[in-house]
Write a structure and sequence with these properties.
Radius of gyration: 19 Å
CATH superfamily: IHF-like DNA-binding proteins
Structural class: alpha+beta
Oligomer: single chain
Number of domains: 1
CATH architecture: Irregular
CATH class: Few Secondary Structures
Strand content: 25-35%
Helix content: 40-55%
Strand order of the largest sheet: 1-2-5
Distance between the termini: 29 Å
Number of strands: 5
Length: 96
């Protein structure tokens, strides 16, 4: 597994070290926050996190796709996708 990924466990460890709460409590807090974010995104179709960005749930219609190697056509089913729009503050921090 790549060490570059920010996982729930790493976030829980930061909470544990920075705030001083137990590992089980910090893991519980991370799970609650992530689950609330998912629930909000499903129910409201949008999730805004100040100074970070906006996640939007978008519906994509069924469409025809092609295998670029063989050229054969197949149907891509309708589905929901998530798009992310970074806040100006995040863009500025990343680009500085």
């Amino acid at each position: 597994m790549s060490d570059n990924n920010l996982t729930r466990i790493k976030i829980a460890n930061v909470l544990n070290n920075e705030i001083g709460i137990s590992h089980s409590e910090s893991s519980y807090f991370v799970d609650v926050i992530v689950n609330e974010m998912i629930k909000s995104l499903i129910e409201k179709k949008i999730l805004k996190i100040s100074s970070f960005g906006t996640l939007k749930l978008r519906y994509k219609k069924e469409r025809t796709g092609r295998n670029p190697k063989t050229g054969t056509e197949h149907t891509i089913t309708a589905r929901n996708t998530i798009s992310f729009i970074a806040s100006k503050l995040l863009k500025n921090k990343v680009n500085s």
